[in-house]
Amino acid sequence: MAHDVTLIPGDGIGPEVCAAACRAIEATGVEITWDVQQAGAAALERSGWALPEATLASIRERGVALKGPVSTPSGSGVRSVNIALRNALDLYAGVRPCRSFEGAPGPFEDVDVVLVRMTGEDLYAGIEFAAGEAATRRLLGLIAEAGHPEPPADTGISIKPISRTAAARLARRALSYARTTGRRRATVIHKATVMRSTDGVFLAAARQVAEREFPDLALDDCLVDTACHRLVRRPGDFDVLVAPVLYGDLLSDLCAGLVGGLGLAPGANLGDEHAVFEAVHGSAPRHAGRDVANPMAVILSGAMLLRHLGEADAADRLEAGVAAVVRDGEQVTYDLRAAGDPRPPCGTAAAGSAVAAAVAASS
Ligand code: NAD
Question: Is the pTM value of this prediction over 0.85?
Answer without folding.
Answer: yes
